[in-house]
Design goal:
Elements (H helix, E strand, L loop, with lengths): L4 H7 L4 E2 L3 E4 L2 E4 L3 E11 L2 E6 L12 E2 L1 E4 L6 H13 L2 E15 L4 E13 L9 E6 L10 H11 L5 E8 L2 E7 L2
Parallel strand pairs: 4-9, 8-11
Antiparallel strand pairs: 1-2, 2-3, 4-5, 4-7, 5-6, 5-10, 8-9, 11-12
Length: 184
């Protein structure tokens, strides 16, 4: 059972709260939200444009290397988010892109995330400075030696193998990947 605002008034007087769950008459009900995001690996000359997340405080991705992307805004499609975030973070206007997969991140610490994964080789413009970190073109052969999330290594490998569209579920306890399920 998911809780929305209309259910909340009915149950709030009989609920017991903890940090991550609401307990109602022996039933556990998640109070977490699901966040929708995009992530894109922009490619040129056998390299991906990688974002080294070193500028923002309290960043879940602090010191990690990731692609570019972010959260969907109200009424925004994944493609609109993709193009907006790529431009905001890199200064590049994507003129072509390919959806490669959907990743579900489940965590004991954070909200669940559904991420639409893309690649792009078609863009206009020049890379600009990013306020979230340093943008660097990294040879695809060197990507796996960077400080990456363990789950990212799984889907990056699939991208580099040019795998067909896929779904992937990644479950973390803290910062540790404890489960990965392709087609999950």
């Amino acid at each position: 059972m998911l809780i929305n605002r209309s259910h909340w008034d009915i149950i709030k007087n009989s609920a017991i709260f903890s940090d991550h769950f609401i307990w109602i008459i022996g039933e556990t009900v998640m109070k977490k939200n699901t966040i929708l995001t995009t992530l894109c690996y922009i490619e040129k000359d056998g390299k991906y444009l990688m974002l080294h997340r070193v500028k923002k405080k309290n960043d879940i991705n602090r010191d990690k290397w990731i692609g570019v992307g972010g959260k969907l805004e109200q009424d925004e499609s994944p493609e609109e988010c993709l193009v907006r975030e790529a431009y905001e973070e890199t200064g590049l206007t994507l003129t072509g892109y390919r959806m490669r997969g959907v990743i579900t991140f489940v965590s004991d610490r954070y909200d669940t995330e559904q991420m639409f994964l893309y690649t792009s080789q078609e863009f206009d413009g020049e890379v600009k400075e990013c306020d979230e970190g340093e943008l660097v073109w990294i040879d695809k052969n060197d990507i796996m030696s960077l400080s990456l999330w363990e789950g990212d290594k799984i889907f990056l490998k699939l991208l580099m193998e040019d795998s067909p569209f896929f779904t992937l579920k990644l479950r973390y306890e803290g910062d540790i990947l404890v489960e990965s399920k392709l087609g999950g």
